[in-house]
Design brief:
Layout: H1 2-20, H2 30-50, H3 61-77, H4 83-102, H5 107-146, H6 150-158, H7 168-188, H8 195-215, H9 218-234, H10 246-267, H11 269-275, H12 284-301, H13 312-316, H14 333-364, H15 371-387, H16 397-422
């Protein structure tokens, strides 16, 4: 009797910490971020110990994550560690632990976890919208009194929301993921007779879509469009609709997508125009070309060990042209992993991605009452990967933690299918 009560208590505490994760940037609030991550690690390990009777490393995605963690540790130690990459390793630890927890929890806890991260995303999206219409004015007044930076001045002048995250592009990466999580929840509840409840999920999705528009992130918008079109194609297998046909639903979604694109074009017309000015050294495309070219240079110079976990920024100074901005990120997760961790890190990470797709496709093809929810979760994970071909949110646990949760849930759902088939 005591053990279930302790498990329930620790699980409730974990849910609270996960709920608040997107509200706290460990880079903007270093001390608070440190203590938050430390307590999260402690609670997560304690919960993992409580449910440790389950197998920790089945030869699936879980085992590959253990190898990836080992590869990170190797890339910290052998090239020579610094305070910076040790701290980054500390910040990364919760991702791995949360993955294992999400892969072990029972169906009731799965639903609680998914609802918590959806609710958190809705609230933070509302804050982002508030920031656009009201909050920017307060920020301008504050900066007038305390001084400002070019980075903040740029965001304020372009009126790009970033909510509690360090940049609009990273916030867009988070919102794109949560849009598909919310859509999955809404699809899951299409069979619920309580239509008001279902409408709340769709309302949350609409709020997040507005927040995504206001980030004015071209990469985020393109990621959403590409993922959404593949998502609609996958819905052809979904049989959870009752009062509305799949064909009609698809047409409605395509129409709304077109409206979404037109609205984005209006809000971000100046930003879109800047992308075509390739002679501008501050053009995002030009800068990303510099980052990726430097990554290839590091890979050539350090083909076996890499430059070390999270050391890209330290070495970029020696590879960048004079006109390039300072950056700690390649803006391509595959290039940065290879540059920092060498071929071992890349091979293991690619194996994780391949396994994620194998398990995810297996899960979403299973026609049951949760199919819509699983489709939404799978494409939330896909959207994150697509966006990290040109972005850097993989290295910000404030956002990346939720991708690791999705990986764990997909692994969990796959295990449940295997257990049912065995039974």
């Amino acid at each position: 009797m005591i053990k279930p009560k302790i498990e329930s208590l620790v699980w409730s505490i974990l849910l609270v910490f996960i709920f608040f994760r997107p509200f706290l940037s460990e880079y903007a609030f270093i001390t608070a971020g440190f203590w938050y991550v430390l307590i999260l690690i402690f609670c997560s390990i304690f919960f993992l110990v409580i449910i440790a009777e389950k197998v920790l490393f089945p030869f699936r995605l879980n085992f590959l994550l253990a190898l990836f963690a080992i590869a990170i540790i190797i890339s910290v130690i052998f090239p020579g560690y610094t305070d910076w990459n040790l701290y980054e390793l500390f910040l990364f630890i919760p991702n791995i632990i949360i993955f294992y927890i999400a892969g072990k929890i029972n169906p009731r806890q799965q639903k609680q976890l998914i609802h918590i991260i959806f609710l958190s995303a809705c609230i933070i999206s509302l804050y982002g919208i508030y920031q656009y219409f009201v909050g920017f004015n307060h920020t301008v007044e504050y900066l007038k009194r305390t001084g400002s930076t070019d980075y903040l001045d740029g965001l304020l002048s372009r009126r790009r929301i970033f909510a509690t995250v360090i940049s609009p592009n990273i916030f867009a990466s988070y919102i794109v993921m949560m849009l598909f999580v919310g859509t999955g929840l809404a699809l899951y509840n299409t069979q619920d007779n309580t239509q008001g409840k279902n409408m709340l999920y769709w309302l949350g999705v609409c709020v997040m879509a507005i927040a995504l528009l206001l980030t004015k992130s071209l990469g985020g918008i393109l990621t959403f469009i590409i993922t959404f079109l593949i998502f609609l194609n996958s819905l052809m297998r979904y049989k959870g609709f009752k009062k509305i046909t799949l064909k009609r639903f698809t047409l409605i979604m395509i129409f709304l997508l077109c409206v979404f694109i037109l609205i984005y074009g209006f809000f971000a017309r100046d930003r879109i125009a800047q992308f075509f000015d390739l002679k501008n050294p501050n053009n995002s495309i030009v800068q990303r070309f510099y980052y990726m070219k430097a990554s290839i240079g590091m890979i050539k110079d350090f083909p076996l060990t890499g430059v070390g976990w999270r050391n890209f920024g330290l070495f970029y100074e020696f590879y960048k042209p004079d006109s390039a901005n300072i950056s700690h990120y390649s803006h391509n997760v595959f290039l940065q992993i290879t540059a920092e961790m060498g071929p071992l890190g890349l091979v293991v990470f690619l194996a994780i991605i391949i396994k994620f797709f194998q398990l995810g496709l297996k899960v979403i093809r299973k026609k049951d009452e949760e199919q819509g929810l699983k489709i939404g979760l799978f494409f939330a994970g896909v959207a994150f990967l697509i966006h990290n071909l040109i972005e850097l949110s993989f290295y910000f646990s404030q956002v990346a933690l939720f991708w690791w949760i999705i990986l764990g849930l997909i692994s969990n759902f796959s295990s449940q299918i295997g257990n049912k088939n065995t039974a």
